[in-house]
Amino acid sequence: MIHRPSVDWFALAPALILLGASGLALLEAVLVPRGARKVVAAATTALGFLGGIVAAIWLYVDSVHGERVIANALYRDRWAALAIVIVCCVGLASVAVSWSERMSERHIAEYYALLAAAGAGMAFFVGAANLMTLFLSLEWFSLCLYVMCAVDSELEGSLEAGLKYLIVGSFGSAALLFGSALVYGATGKLGFVEIAQATATGGLSHDALLVVGLALVLAGLGFKASAAPFHMWTPDVYEGAPTPVTAFMSAATKTVALVVALRVLVTAFPQEARLWTWAVAGIAVASLAIGNLAALVQRDVKRMLAYSSISHAGFMLIAVATGTPLGGRALMYYLIPYSAIAFGGFAVVAARERELGVPVTVDNLAGFGWERPFLGISMTLFMLGSAGLPFTGGFVGKFYAFSAAYDHGWIWLVIVGVVATIVSLYYYLGVVRAMYMRPAEELRLAAVAGGSPPREALLQAAVGAAFVVTFGSFFAVQPLIELARHAASSLPF
After folding, report:
1. Number of domains making up the chain
2. CB burial class (10 A; 0-12, 13-18, 19+) of residue 454?
């Protein structure tokens, strides 16, 4: 007789809601007349993400004491629930930004179906409790993102971006799979908790097989977090993919990769903390250096923001590297304003792209702040937040990450982070200068021909939501820190 484990359907609710929305959108691609497909599929996907938000908030409230469910394959705890809330909020905003994107109408319903399916995969990924669930859910949302990057065959660079992401992402997945196989070979266990127990009882802390497996698992997650030196795909894919897809990836993919990375490290490999803390600190320094120095010479704004996301991975990895409760709280707090800042920046780029019909560069941003006051002010706030300046959540996020490093005794890492922040001011403030302070002759050259383009209410609503989170997270620090503290208490620090 086959033993079937009990299934906690409530723990699966966010993923199942999004999967249902994805399935409906696929049916609508066939059954709904072409003229109505976009409206119906977008509405279905938006309702799916709304349902995911409600279910995840309910899970957060109802999961005070975290536990493993469904044959110990999945975590039901506040750490996963809060990450799902962030992903679903980003997904909902992505639906709004995608509405007016110039995409082929032939595959528009499939695009929204893939967006919902990617969100479902991420919701499953953040709750992974063993190496098998981890790999399968990673592939689940990665396959959706590969296709989304290449979905607009009429966009120059879209197919190239999808192919590059597929090839390089496959290397990352292979590294994670091979590392998982080595860890299983060393311990004979798949569950994170069981791996830690087997390592402790078997005295495997110095086992070469386990250490190499840990390194490969870390590399595989580093690919998804676009942390250096695993960042090679990021600038080209972010530049070539449709901008709404880039916005979704920049916020959601990095969120789930870092959340899972910290869970795996502190749960499965606590005995190897002497190794992975230094390894993650080294990756953080490399990300800060490469991300900021490469961004200095970029003129294409999407590529500049791609390198900015690499540097932000470095700042968040500072919190991960400490492996402490304070580091866990810092990471979860940082992800909230970062997601708004990263998504909002790409949403504003999408608006400018639609006005000009060409890639957005620092040069053709000239005068944008005066032409579109709301979007210009929003972009200014996003750049200030990315730089970590006061009155934005980015300031508190960086300060919190530095506090975790200082508390851990790594003053040198704080110094590296401060220097990286100073360097980043050049290119972030360069965008603000381009929007407001260009000479009159440059403004005439960059002026938009053909009259004023139509206002996009949904895009502006998404940018407005990102603005509120970026600005509000500076003043609502205590409630957000409490959320992060409760979430981090689910991890076994």
Report:
1. 1
2. exposed
Burial class (CB in 10 A: 0-12, 13-18, 19+), 357: exposed
Tell me if 7 is assigned to some domain: no
Structure confidence by residue, pLDDT tens digits, 52-73: 999 999 999 998 888 999 989 9
Q: 67 φ, ψ to 5°?
A: -150, 165
- For the question of whether the overall pTM of this predicted structure is more than 0.90, the answer is yes
Is 384 a domain residue? yes
Which of left, alpha, beta for 367 (phi over 0: left; psi -120 to 50: alpha)? left
- In-domain check, residue 23: yes
Expressed as residue numbers, the domain containing 211 is 13-488
Which 3 state secondary structure label does DSSP give 74? strand
Long-range contacts of 146-151 (CB under 8 A, 24+ apart): 147/114, 148/111, 148/114, 148/115, 148/118, 148/241, 148/242, 148/245, 148/248, 149/237, 149/240, 149/241, 149/242, 149/245, 150/241, 151/103, 151/107, 151/110, 151/111, 151/114, 151/242, 151/245
Q: Within a domain: residue 301?
A: yes
